[in-house]
Write a structure and sequence with these properties.
single chain, alpha+beta, Alpha-Beta Plaits, Double Stranded RNA Binding Domain, 3 domains, 3-stranded antiparallel β-sheet, 23% strand, disordered C terminus, PrfB, PCRF, methylation, coiled coil
Length: 321
């Protein structure tokens, strides 16, 4: 029924666009016949609005995967390099939170591990909104930063790496069986903000799925019981995402497994010095405004990656100004 409703909405939108286009053409023809420039301009303005709406609809057609409409979890992990990479991981966490805010999505921080001096070692976000997973699923991979280090007294240029991992939130209608005997459950004290209670009780929960090595953690709630329940939900989601990836790899006859956090494995480079450039190494899409990208302007990169995944090409994708 959900699929039927979605298809009916899409068909109705297309028919509405067709009718609006016919009306706009008629308006322009009428203005041309009567020599009325204002009427012609009105019709042209309607066509420009139709074009923008059609482009938005075109992107939405790329979000047709099995779990694309779901909420999503997003993990950020720092790579080797200590404070540098931990600061970069925190910058990425902020970037995705800003992107989510631009789309009207809700963001919850489920788990965070603070760095020793600055930044974070890792964090897990829950991003809630229609098509959240569909938009973010191509962001999984290693992200590389090149800049003059604010932590280097000699002001030398440093390269830092951090990884992003995205997997969908699964609802009750998707049955994922997990054998608890194959899992190790650890409790520990949460870190970060949260008041006296969160730092003085072992309320945080970490679950390790031994057959796959998947690890999830949650420290969002004051109650260990609630954190445990949320962690189980996250584990089921990770196992579901792994199964989706297997199906996709089989269908596309390609392997896209998780890579090491380092050289040769990155999907996108963010260069702040000696020049300003963000470039996606999969699609070739680039931006000369890394400040805007780090502030959440990610849609052109996501759209190109989605098009490449669906059509196997990034044709007609332009650079971002």
């Amino acid at each position: 029924m959900r699929e039927r409703t979605s298809l009916e909405d899409s068909i109705a939108a297309i028919r509405r666009l067709e009718q609006e286009l016919d009306d706009a053409i008629t308006l322009i023809e009428l203005g041309d016949a009567e020599g009325d420039d204002a009427t012609i301009q009105e019709g042209e303005a309607v066509i420009r609005n139709i074009e923008a709406e059609a482009q938005r609809r075109q992107v939405e057609t790329l979000l047709s995967g099995e779990a694309d409409s779901n909420d999503t979890y997003l993990e950020v992990h720092s790579g080797a390099g200590g404070t540098e990479s931990q600061d970069w991981a925190q910058m990425l966490q902020r970037m995705y939170a800003r992107w989510a805010d631009r789309h009207g999505f809700k963001v919850e921080v489920l788990e965070i591990s603070e760095g020793e001096e600055a930044g974070i070692k890792g964090a897990t976000l829950a991003i809630k909104g229609h098509n959240a997973y569909g938009w973010l699923k191509t962001e999984s991979g290693v992200h590389r930063l090149v800049r003059i280090s604010p932590y280097d007294s000699a002001a030398r240029r440093h390269t830092s790496f951090a990884s992003v991992w995205v997997y969908p939130v699964v609802d009750d209608k998707i049955d994922i069986q997990v054998n608890e005997s194959e899992c190790r459950i650890d409790t520990y004290r949460a870190s970060g903000a949260g008041g006296q209670h969160i730092n003085t009780t072992d309320s945080a929960v970490r679950i390790t799925h031994l057959p796959t090595g998947i690890v999830v953690a949650c420290q969002q709630e004051r109650s260990q019981h609630k954190n445990r329940a949320k962690a189980w939900d996250m584990l089921r989601a990770r196992l579901y995402e792994a199964e989706l990836k297997k199906r996709e790899e089989k269908a596309n006859a390609e392997s896209a497994s998780k890579s090491d956090i380092g050289w040769g494995h990155q999907i996108r480079s963010y260069v702040l010095q000696p020049y300003q450039m963000v470039k996606d190494l999969r699609t070739g899409v680039q931006s000369t405004s890394p400040g805007d990208v780090l502030d959440g302007e990610l849609d052109p990169f996501m759209e190109a990656a989605l098009a490449q995944r669906v059509y196997g090409t990034t044709a007609d994708v332009e650079d971002v100004d």
